[in-house]
Protein backbone atom coordinates (compact mmCIF):
# COMPACT_ATOMS: atom_id res chain seq x y z
CA UNK A 1 0.00 0.00 0.00
CA UNK A 2 1.29 3.41 -0.92
CA UNK A 3 1.73 5.69 2.08
CA UNK A 4 3.88 8.66 2.94
CA UNK A 5 4.59 10.98 5.87
CA UNK A 6 5.17 14.70 5.72
CA UNK A 7 8.08 16.91 6.90
CA UNK A 8 9.72 16.64 10.27
CA UNK A 9 9.64 19.20 13.05
CA UNK A 10 12.25 21.99 12.87
CA UNK A 11 14.31 20.43 15.68
CA UNK A 12 14.57 17.19 13.76
CA UNK A 13 15.47 19.08 10.62
CA UNK A 14 18.34 20.72 12.48
CA UNK A 15 19.55 17.32 13.61
CA UNK A 16 19.63 16.12 10.02
CA UNK A 17 22.30 18.71 9.27
CA UNK A 18 24.89 16.44 10.86
CA UNK A 19 24.27 13.78 8.23
CA UNK A 20 27.11 13.52 5.72
CA UNK A 21 26.32 14.19 2.09
CA UNK A 22 27.23 11.25 -0.11
CA UNK A 23 28.43 11.30 -3.67
CA UNK A 24 25.98 9.94 -6.21
CA UNK A 25 28.19 6.92 -6.87
CA UNK A 26 28.63 5.92 -3.23
CA UNK A 27 26.52 3.62 -1.10
CA UNK A 28 23.73 5.38 0.74
CA UNK A 29 22.84 2.91 3.45
CA UNK A 30 20.31 0.20 4.09
CA UNK A 31 17.40 -0.62 1.89
CA UNK A 32 19.29 -0.11 -1.37
CA UNK A 33 18.79 -2.46 -4.27
CA UNK A 34 20.40 -2.51 -7.69
CA UNK A 35 18.92 -2.95 -11.12
CA UNK A 36 21.78 -4.66 -12.92
CA UNK A 37 22.09 -6.15 -16.38
CA UNK A 38 23.43 -4.63 -19.59
CA UNK A 39 26.48 -6.09 -21.30
CA UNK A 40 27.80 -2.89 -22.84
CA UNK A 41 27.99 0.78 -22.07
CA UNK A 42 25.49 3.14 -23.62
CA UNK A 43 28.29 4.68 -25.69
CA UNK A 44 28.71 1.33 -27.46
CA UNK A 45 32.31 0.96 -26.30
CA UNK A 46 33.79 -2.52 -26.14
CA UNK A 47 36.15 -4.11 -23.66
CA UNK A 48 36.80 -7.19 -21.63
CA UNK A 49 34.80 -5.85 -18.70
CA UNK A 50 31.19 -4.91 -19.45
CA UNK A 51 31.05 -1.94 -17.08
CA UNK A 52 27.95 0.23 -17.02
CA UNK A 53 28.19 3.71 -18.52
CA UNK A 54 27.27 5.25 -15.16
CA UNK A 55 25.77 4.26 -11.85
CA UNK A 56 22.71 6.23 -10.80
CA UNK A 57 21.08 6.37 -7.39
CA UNK A 58 17.30 6.74 -7.30
CA UNK A 59 16.28 8.18 -3.93
CA UNK A 60 12.80 7.28 -2.73
CA UNK A 61 10.75 6.54 0.39
CA UNK A 62 10.54 3.24 2.23
CA UNK A 63 7.08 2.32 0.89
CA UNK A 64 8.24 2.37 -2.73
CA UNK A 65 8.13 -1.04 -4.42
CA UNK A 66 10.54 -1.35 -7.31
CA UNK A 67 8.79 -2.45 -10.53
CA UNK A 68 10.56 -5.21 -12.43
CA UNK A 69 10.68 -2.93 -15.47
CA UNK A 70 13.43 -0.85 -13.86
CA UNK A 71 15.94 -3.56 -14.72
CA UNK A 72 15.10 -3.02 -18.39
CA UNK A 73 16.53 0.50 -18.19
CA UNK A 74 19.94 -0.95 -17.37
CA UNK A 75 19.66 -3.52 -20.15
CA UNK A 76 18.73 -0.84 -22.65
CA UNK A 77 21.26 1.81 -21.63
CA UNK A 78 24.06 0.13 -19.70
CA UNK A 79 23.32 2.53 -16.84
CA UNK A 80 23.05 0.77 -13.48
CA UNK A 81 20.39 2.03 -11.06
CA UNK A 82 20.54 1.66 -7.30
CA UNK A 83 17.30 2.29 -5.40
CA UNK A 84 18.07 3.93 -2.05
CA UNK A 85 15.18 4.25 0.40
CA UNK A 86 15.26 6.99 2.99
CA UNK A 87 12.42 6.74 5.48
CA UNK A 88 9.08 8.39 4.78
CA UNK A 89 8.51 11.02 2.13
CA UNK A 90 8.87 13.86 4.61
CA UNK A 91 12.31 12.67 5.69
CA UNK A 92 13.23 12.13 2.05
CA UNK A 93 12.28 15.68 1.04
CA UNK A 94 13.84 17.26 4.12
CA UNK A 95 17.16 15.52 3.52
CA UNK A 96 17.05 16.54 -0.13
CA UNK A 97 16.56 20.18 0.91
CA UNK A 98 19.42 20.00 3.39
CA UNK A 99 21.75 18.48 0.79
CA UNK A 100 20.58 20.54 -2.19
CA UNK A 101 23.49 21.01 -4.59
CA UNK A 102 25.43 18.14 -3.00
CA UNK A 103 22.85 15.37 -3.29
CA UNK A 104 22.95 11.84 -1.96
CA UNK A 105 21.67 10.56 -5.29
CA UNK A 106 20.86 11.54 -8.84
CA UNK A 107 17.06 11.29 -9.19
CA UNK A 108 14.43 11.64 -6.48
CA UNK A 109 11.04 9.91 -6.65
CA UNK A 110 8.27 10.76 -4.22
CA UNK A 111 7.70 14.46 -3.67
CA UNK A 112 3.97 15.12 -4.09
CA UNK A 113 1.84 18.18 -4.66
CA UNK A 114 1.35 18.74 -0.92
CA UNK A 115 5.14 19.10 -0.44
CA UNK A 116 6.18 20.33 -3.87
CA UNK A 117 6.62 23.99 -2.97
CA UNK A 118 9.09 23.16 -0.21
CA UNK A 119 11.30 21.18 -2.56
CA UNK A 120 11.12 23.81 -5.32
CA UNK A 121 11.82 26.66 -2.89
CA UNK A 122 14.72 24.62 -1.50
CA UNK A 123 16.25 24.39 -5.01
CA UNK A 124 16.45 20.63 -4.75
CA UNK A 125 16.09 19.95 -8.47
CA UNK A 126 17.67 20.92 -11.76
CA UNK A 127 14.80 21.74 -14.13
CA UNK A 128 14.37 19.26 -16.95
CA UNK A 129 11.67 19.24 -19.61
CA UNK A 130 11.17 15.56 -20.30
CA UNK A 131 10.79 14.42 -23.88
CA UNK A 132 7.76 12.43 -22.68
CA UNK A 133 5.67 15.33 -21.36
CA UNK A 134 3.33 15.22 -24.33
CA UNK A 135 2.32 11.69 -23.31
CA UNK A 136 1.48 12.61 -19.72
CA UNK A 137 -1.78 13.84 -18.18
CA UNK A 138 -1.92 17.59 -18.90
CA UNK A 139 -3.43 18.42 -15.50
CA UNK A 140 -0.44 16.84 -13.76
CA UNK A 141 2.12 18.46 -16.07
CA UNK A 142 0.57 21.90 -15.56
CA UNK A 143 1.28 21.75 -11.82
CA UNK A 144 4.97 22.39 -12.54
CA UNK A 145 5.27 25.15 -15.15
CA UNK A 146 9.00 25.50 -14.45
CA UNK A 147 9.59 21.75 -15.10
CA UNK A 148 11.58 21.39 -11.91
CA UNK A 149 10.12 17.87 -11.65
CA UNK A 150 8.12 15.48 -13.83
CA UNK A 151 4.81 13.91 -12.73
CA UNK A 152 5.09 10.13 -12.38
CA UNK A 153 1.84 8.91 -10.82
CA UNK A 154 -1.42 9.98 -9.26
CA UNK A 155 -3.46 8.72 -6.34
CA UNK A 156 -6.51 9.80 -4.38
CA UNK A 157 -6.77 10.01 -0.61
CA UNK A 158 -10.34 9.16 0.41
CA UNK A 159 -12.42 7.81 3.22
CA UNK A 160 -12.51 4.01 3.20
CA UNK A 161 -15.27 2.01 4.90
CA UNK A 162 -15.59 -1.56 6.15
CA UNK A 163 -18.55 -2.88 4.13
CA UNK A 164 -19.09 -5.93 6.32
CA UNK A 165 -19.24 -3.92 9.53
CA UNK A 166 -21.90 -1.59 8.16
CA UNK A 167 -23.91 -4.49 6.75
CA UNK A 168 -23.84 -6.24 10.12
CA UNK A 169 -25.05 -3.10 11.89
CA UNK A 170 -27.68 -2.29 9.28
CA UNK A 171 -26.19 1.20 8.93
CA UNK A 172 -25.96 3.04 5.60
CA UNK A 173 -22.45 3.60 4.27
CA UNK A 174 -21.39 7.26 4.53
CA UNK A 175 -21.40 9.07 1.19
CA UNK A 176 -20.24 12.60 2.04
CA UNK A 177 -18.20 14.64 4.50
CA UNK A 178 -21.45 15.86 6.03
CA UNK A 179 -22.53 12.30 6.83
CA UNK A 180 -19.65 12.06 9.27
CA UNK A 181 -21.35 14.64 11.50
CA UNK A 182 -24.50 12.54 11.92
CA UNK A 183 -24.78 11.14 15.47
CA UNK A 184 -25.28 7.71 13.87
CA UNK A 185 -21.59 7.81 12.89
CA UNK A 186 -20.28 9.01 16.25
CA UNK A 187 -17.04 7.29 17.21
CA UNK A 188 -16.67 5.49 13.88
CA UNK A 189 -13.94 7.54 12.13
CA UNK A 190 -10.17 7.42 12.51
CA UNK A 191 -7.94 9.97 10.74
CA UNK A 192 -4.23 10.70 10.64
CA UNK A 193 -2.65 13.83 12.12
CA UNK A 194 -1.91 16.19 9.19
CA UNK A 195 1.19 17.42 11.01
CA UNK A 196 2.75 13.96 10.77
CA UNK A 197 1.01 12.10 7.96
CA UNK A 198 0.70 12.74 4.23
CA UNK A 199 -2.76 11.13 3.88
CA UNK A 200 -3.77 13.04 6.99
CA UNK A 201 -2.65 16.29 5.36
CA UNK A 202 -4.39 15.36 2.10
CA UNK A 203 -7.64 14.71 3.98
CA UNK A 204 -7.34 18.08 5.73
CA UNK A 205 -6.81 19.71 2.33
CA UNK A 206 -9.84 17.85 1.02
CA UNK A 207 -11.98 19.47 3.72
CA UNK A 208 -10.54 22.89 2.87
CA UNK A 209 -11.32 22.33 -0.81
CA UNK A 210 -14.86 21.18 0.00
CA UNK A 211 -15.89 23.58 2.78
CA UNK A 212 -13.60 26.52 2.12
CA UNK A 213 -11.85 28.61 4.74
CA UNK A 214 -13.07 29.04 7.49
CA UNK A 215 -15.78 26.44 6.78
CA UNK A 216 -13.31 23.59 7.18
CA UNK A 217 -12.54 24.70 10.73
CA UNK A 218 -16.22 24.53 11.69
CA UNK A 219 -16.45 21.05 10.14
CA UNK A 220 -13.52 19.78 12.20
CA UNK A 221 -14.94 21.27 15.40
CA UNK A 222 -18.16 19.32 14.79
CA UNK A 223 -16.18 16.20 13.86
CA UNK A 224 -14.31 16.43 17.15
CA UNK A 225 -17.66 16.62 18.95
CA UNK A 226 -18.66 13.45 17.09
CA UNK A 227 -15.69 11.61 18.59
CA UNK A 228 -13.20 11.45 15.72
CA UNK A 229 -10.05 9.49 16.60
CA UNK A 230 -6.65 10.91 15.58
CA UNK A 231 -3.49 8.80 15.19
CA UNK A 232 -0.05 9.71 13.90
CA UNK A 233 0.28 7.66 10.72
CA UNK A 234 -1.45 5.56 8.08
CA UNK A 235 -0.14 2.23 9.42
CA UNK A 236 -1.65 2.82 12.85
CA UNK A 237 -4.93 4.06 11.43
CA UNK A 238 -5.38 1.23 8.94
CA UNK A 239 -3.82 -1.78 10.64
CA UNK A 240 -4.61 -1.00 14.29
CA UNK A 241 -7.73 1.20 14.39
CA UNK A 242 -9.67 0.21 11.25
CA UNK A 243 -12.04 -2.73 11.69
CA UNK A 244 -11.03 -4.16 8.29
CA UNK A 245 -7.30 -3.70 8.81
CA UNK A 246 -6.58 -7.14 10.19
CA UNK A 247 -6.11 -6.11 13.81
CA UNK A 248 -8.51 -5.50 16.65
CA UNK A 249 -9.67 -2.09 15.44
CA UNK A 250 -13.03 -0.60 16.39
CA UNK A 251 -13.33 2.17 13.76
CA UNK A 252 -15.07 1.15 10.50
CA UNK A 253 -14.21 4.41 8.68
CA UNK A 254 -10.58 5.35 7.94
CA UNK A 255 -8.66 7.81 5.76
CA UNK A 256 -6.85 5.75 3.12
CA UNK A 257 -6.72 5.63 -0.70
CA UNK A 258 -9.11 5.05 -3.58
CA UNK A 259 -6.83 2.16 -4.56
CA UNK A 260 -7.05 0.48 -1.14
CA UNK A 261 -10.17 -1.63 -1.86
CA UNK A 262 -8.57 -3.74 -4.65
CA UNK A 263 -5.62 -4.34 -2.34
CA UNK A 264 -7.98 -6.27 -0.05
CA UNK A 265 -8.30 -8.79 -2.87
CA UNK A 266 -4.71 -8.71 -4.15
CA UNK A 267 -3.11 -9.32 -0.75
CA UNK A 268 -5.77 -11.66 0.63
CA UNK A 269 -5.01 -15.27 1.43
CA UNK A 270 -6.45 -17.98 -0.80
CA UNK A 271 -9.25 -18.38 -1.56
CA UNK A 272 -9.32 -14.69 -2.38
CA UNK A 273 -12.57 -12.73 -2.12
CA UNK A 274 -14.24 -11.91 -5.41
CA UNK A 275 -15.06 -8.35 -4.35
CA UNK A 276 -13.24 -5.92 -2.03
CA UNK A 277 -14.11 -6.01 1.65
CA UNK A 278 -13.84 -2.23 1.78
CA UNK A 279 -15.06 0.69 -0.34
CA UNK A 280 -13.82 4.22 -0.91
CA UNK A 281 -16.06 7.28 -0.66
CA UNK A 282 -15.39 9.12 -3.90
CA UNK A 283 -16.94 12.42 -2.80
CA UNK A 284 -14.16 12.77 -0.20
CA UNK A 285 -11.20 12.05 -2.49
CA UNK A 286 -8.29 14.48 -2.76
CA UNK A 287 -5.94 14.13 -5.73
CA UNK A 288 -2.26 13.55 -4.97
CA UNK A 289 0.30 13.75 -7.75
CA UNK A 290 3.81 12.40 -7.25
CA UNK A 291 6.86 13.67 -9.07
CA UNK A 292 10.42 12.63 -9.87
CA UNK A 293 13.24 15.01 -10.68
CA UNK A 294 16.94 15.35 -11.41
CA UNK A 295 18.74 16.36 -8.24
CA UNK A 296 20.76 19.56 -8.51
CA UNK A 297 24.45 18.76 -8.25
CA UNK A 298 24.34 15.27 -9.72
CA UNK A 299 27.50 14.29 -11.57
CA UNK A 300 25.41 12.34 -14.09
CA UNK A 301 22.83 14.85 -15.27
CA UNK A 302 22.37 13.46 -18.78
CA UNK A 303 21.94 9.91 -17.51
CA UNK A 304 19.57 11.11 -14.79
CA UNK A 305 17.43 12.78 -17.44
CA UNK A 306 17.25 9.48 -19.32
CA UNK A 307 16.08 7.74 -16.16
CA UNK A 308 13.32 10.32 -15.62
CA UNK A 309 12.15 9.70 -19.18
CA UNK A 310 12.13 5.95 -18.51
CA UNK A 311 10.09 6.37 -15.32
CA UNK A 312 7.25 7.82 -17.36
CA UNK A 313 7.62 5.30 -20.17
CA UNK A 314 4.84 2.84 -20.93
CA UNK A 315 6.54 -0.26 -19.51
CA UNK A 316 7.42 1.24 -16.13
CA UNK A 317 4.09 3.05 -15.84
CA UNK A 318 2.19 -0.13 -16.58
CA UNK A 319 3.63 -1.84 -13.49
CA UNK A 320 2.83 0.93 -11.02
CA UNK A 321 -0.76 -0.07 -10.11
CA UNK A 322 0.04 -3.53 -8.76
CA UNK A 323 3.41 -2.62 -7.23
CA UNK A 324 2.68 0.75 -5.61
CA UNK A 325 -1.12 0.91 -5.91
CA UNK A 326 -1.06 4.24 -7.70
CA UNK A 327 -2.33 5.29 -11.11
CA UNK A 328 -0.09 5.83 -14.15
CA UNK A 329 0.32 9.43 -15.20
CA UNK A 330 1.09 8.39 -18.77
CA UNK A 331 -1.99 8.51 -20.94
CA UNK A 332 -3.05 5.33 -22.72
CA UNK A 333 -1.53 2.92 -20.19
CA UNK A 334 -4.10 0.23 -19.46
CA UNK A 335 -5.06 -0.41 -15.85
CA UNK A 336 -5.08 -3.99 -14.57
CA UNK A 337 -8.48 -5.65 -14.39
CA UNK A 338 -8.46 -5.40 -10.60
CA UNK A 339 -8.38 -1.60 -10.88
CA UNK A 340 -10.83 -1.46 -13.77
CA UNK A 341 -13.35 -3.49 -11.81
CA UNK A 342 -12.92 -2.03 -8.33
CA UNK A 343 -10.91 1.20 -8.46
CA UNK A 344 -11.46 3.12 -11.68
CA UNK A 345 -9.97 6.65 -11.56
CA UNK A 346 -12.05 9.06 -9.51
CA UNK A 347 -13.91 11.28 -11.96
CA UNK A 348 -13.99 14.51 -9.94
CA UNK A 349 -11.41 14.51 -7.12
CA UNK A 350 -10.97 17.55 -4.91
CA UNK A 351 -7.88 19.63 -5.65
CA UNK A 352 -5.96 22.68 -4.49
CA UNK A 353 -3.18 24.38 -6.42
CA UNK A 354 0.40 23.92 -5.19
CA UNK A 355 0.58 27.70 -4.76
CA UNK A 356 -2.49 27.71 -2.51
CA UNK A 357 -1.11 24.81 -0.49
CA UNK A 358 2.25 26.56 -0.15
CA UNK A 359 0.65 29.80 1.01
CA UNK A 360 -1.67 28.29 3.62
CA UNK A 361 -0.49 24.77 4.53
CA UNK A 362 1.17 25.68 7.83
CA UNK A 363 -1.75 27.90 8.87
CA UNK A 364 -4.28 25.16 8.07
CA UNK A 365 -2.32 22.59 10.06
CA UNK A 366 -2.00 24.98 13.02
CA UNK A 367 -5.71 25.77 12.99
CA UNK A 368 -6.55 22.07 12.73
CA UNK A 369 -4.31 21.32 15.71
CA UNK A 370 -5.95 24.02 17.82
CA UNK A 371 -9.43 22.87 16.81
CA UNK A 372 -9.07 19.10 17.09
CA UNK A 373 -6.31 18.35 19.57
CA UNK A 374 -6.48 21.17 22.12
Structure commentary:
The chain has 374 residues and is an alpha/beta fold. It folds into two domains: 200 residues, 3-Layer(aba) Sandwich (D-Maltodextrin-Binding Protein, domain 2), CATH 3.40.190; 157 residues, Periplasmic binding protein-like II (D-Maltodextrin-Binding Protein, domain 2). It contains 14 helices and ten strands. Strands 1, 2, 3, 4, 5, 6, 7, 8, 9 and 10 form a ten-stranded mixed β-sheet that branches. Strand 2, helix 2 and strand 3 form a beta-alpha-beta unit. Helix 7 packs across helix 8. The radius of gyration is 21 Å and the shape is globular. About 11% of the residues have low confidence.
State the CATH superfamily name of the largest domain. Periplasmic binding protein-like II
Quantity of strands, as a count: 10
Query: What top-tier CATH class of the largest domain fits best?
Result: Alpha Beta
The assigned CATH architecture of the largest domain is 3-Layer(aba) Sandwich
Determine the strand fraction and express it as a percent band: 15-25%
Amino acid sequence: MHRRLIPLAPAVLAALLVLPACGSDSSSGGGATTAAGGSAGSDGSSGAAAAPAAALTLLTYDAFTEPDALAQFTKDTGIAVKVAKSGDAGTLVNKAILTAGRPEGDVLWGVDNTLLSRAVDGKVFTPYQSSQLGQLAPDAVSLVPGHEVTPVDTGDVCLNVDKGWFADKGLRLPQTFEDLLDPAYKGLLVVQNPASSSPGLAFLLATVAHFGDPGYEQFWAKLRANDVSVVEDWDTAYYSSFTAGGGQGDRPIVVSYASSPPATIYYADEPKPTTPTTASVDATCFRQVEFAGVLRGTQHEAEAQRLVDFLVGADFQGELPLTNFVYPVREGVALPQLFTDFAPPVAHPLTLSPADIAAHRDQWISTWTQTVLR
